[in-house]
Amino acid sequence: MVLPAGSTETYRRDGVVVLRGVLSPTDLETISRGVDANLAAPGPWSNDYAPGESGGRFFDDYVNWGRIDEFRRAALQGALPAIAGELTGTSSPRFFHEHVLVKEPGTVTVTPWHHDDPYYGVEGMDNVSLWVPLDPVPPAVALRCIVGSHLVARRFIPNRFVDDSPYVAAADGFETFPSSAELEAIGDTIVCPAEPGDIVAFHFRTLHGAPGTEGHPLRRRVVSFRYVGDDVRWVTRPWRTSPPFEPEGLADGDLLDDVRFPLVRLD
């Protein structure tokens, strides 16, 4: 798949790029049906962060592609793996997992600043999250990213989304999250409004967050499809990862050569 000129260079430099109009209505319908199936039958690792709010709900779930055919087809065929391959510079991207995020209108709960990398049991710079909106996402409720933050050496202990508390008090090579002001001083913050058909592609180490939908009569359904490239290896974290994949025969430093992480050959 040929991306807009300069997309790969922007992605590697900034850690984020918005790809306009790269998914077809058929792609979006397939993924939308997958979300409907997921909401109707959540998986064992689902969460509901705002179930008590009047009119609000922040639902998330992941790793359901094995039982939801629409997610499997979107992840392993067509535009998404081709885009992942171009951005990560590989002819064989490996699908890591999908992640459903649904914020209903009036949801107070925000997505706090974080980078995804420490949550995962993998290490490597060849990776991408393809953030696929199924509804219009105007600036007021859009994803925010800190440009170039994927190249900063600092690594942060993950925080729990439910209460923003750290997974552990201390860990070698990681620090607890500083204030929002200090984080935002790392680089320029860009807002990424998007329409159905667009993709916000960002690196696992890119700092990002998103507001709630309080005061906005908007539903925000998003599915992130996450891929890894040639340099990514399994690693043990000093906390339970999210998703909580078990090693199941993988040792630190191993390629993710496992049926849970299928390889997509593009050539």
The stretches of 5 or more residues where confidence is low (pLDDT under 50) are none
Order of strands, main sheet, comes to 1-10-7-12-4-3-2
N-to-C SSE string, H for helix and E for strand? HEHEEHHEEEEEHEEEEE
What is the straight-line distance between the termini? Answer: 11 Å
Please give the domain count: 1
- The CATH architecture would be Sandwich
Radius of gyration: 17 Å
- Can you count the helices? 5
CATH homologous superfamily - what is it?
q2cbj1_9rhob like domain
Give the class from helix and strand content and strand pairing: alpha+beta
| Average pLDDT rating | 93
Helix percentage range: 10-25%
| Strand proportion | 15-25%
Gross morphology: globular
- Largest beta sheet, briefly? 7 strands, antiparallel
Total beta strand runs = 13
CATH topology term: Jelly Rolls
Name of the level-1 CATH class:
Mainly Beta
Describe the protein in words.
The structure is a single chain. The chain is an alpha+beta fold. The protein has a single domain, classed as q2cbj1_9rhob like domain (Jelly Rolls, Sandwich). It is 18% helix and 22% strand. It contains five helices and 13 strands. Strands 1-10-7-12-4-3-2 form a seven-stranded antiparallel sheet. The radius of gyration is 17 Å and the shape is globular. The termini are close together. The mean pLDDT is 93.
The gist of it:
With 267 residues, the protein is of the alpha+beta class. Helices cover 18% and strands 22% of the residues.
